[in-house]
Write a structure and sequence with these properties.
The structure is a single chain. The chain is α/β, with parallel strands linked by helices and 248 residues long. Helices cover 36% and strands 18% of the residues. It contains ten helices and eight strands. The longest helix has 19 residues, at 192-210.
């Protein structure tokens, strides 16, 4: 790191858990964010601000007026443009040293396998089980850590899964089959600051993975009830009958 970087990240470097070595790991890391909506926007912004060296942004959607209530990387003049391009512009303005690549595609397993070949961590910020299951499968196939988040109405959750760990569960240990696919923000609504809370926690967990501070987080599901300001923590174990990673 040069003197400007040392100054820029000084508040992070002074943390004994991070130090110069941890910041160097962050600066040389590559993170893929799938979904640049309410969750993916704060994830991308915080990771760039923290010094992540490379971001791959993946989303097939365009910016609409109704997105602006919560998707903070997008602006009014981005309406009608690809979310990945709008987010790239915002993130590049936060940190010009972060290398950003974009994929304006709706991903399947084959596409994901190609896009995620050289990343260090996957962030799942999507809103449907079909895509989440595909991300989970590729995460296990490529042995890539996965930080998954979800938010709807006034409730959210974050879970960290690591297929490199022998006993780590996978996403389908939590959701073996799709639940109600109509449970989305468009039809059920979502409280704007809630996605910021969950997205920020996804960014935090991602940085912990990069700095090798996340071992104790594997398999814990953190549920947040924004209305009551309550957190619940569920320990998720690998399911022997899981359709993805089960042994039965």
């Amino acid at each position: 790191m040069d003197d400007k970087q040392l100054l820029r990240y000084s508040r992070q470097i002074m943390l004994p858990e991070i130090d110069v070595l941890g910041q160097e790991k962050i600066n040389s890391s590559h993170v893929a964010i799938i979904g640049l909506g309410g969750l993916g926007c704060p994830v991308a912004m915080y990771l760039a601000a923290s010094g992540v060296g490379q971001l791959t942004l993946i989303d097939d959607d365009i910016v609409e007026l109704s997105n602006l209530q919560r998707q903070i990387a997008h602006r009014e003049d981005n309406i009608g443009t690809a979310k990945v391009q709008a987010a790239k512009c915002t993130v590049q303005g936060i940190n010009s040293r972060t290398k950003i690549s974009t994929a304006h595609v709706r991903v399947d397993i084959a596409e994901l396998s190609n896009l995620l070949q050289d990343v260090d961590v996957i962030v799942d910020a999507t809103d449907n089980f079909t895509t989440r299951f595909a991300i989970n499968e590729v995460s296990r196939k490529l042995k890539l850590p996965l930080v998954s988040g979800a938010a709807i109405r006034m409730e959210g959750q974050v879970i960290f899964l690591d297929p490199r760990a022998p006993e780590s569960p996978c996403y389908r240990c939590l959701y073996p089959s799709p639940t109600n696919e109509t449970l989305n923000c468009a039809e059920n609504g979502v409280f704007a600051p809630l996605v910021g809370v969950i997205g920020s926690l996804q960014a935090l967990e991602t940085l912990k993975v990069i700095c090798e501070l996340s071992q104790d987080s594997i398999g814990w599901v953190h549920y947040f009830d924004a209305k009551r300001m309550e957190w619940r923590k569920l320990g998720l174990k690998r399911n022997p009958s899981c359709p993805e990673c089960g042994t039965q």
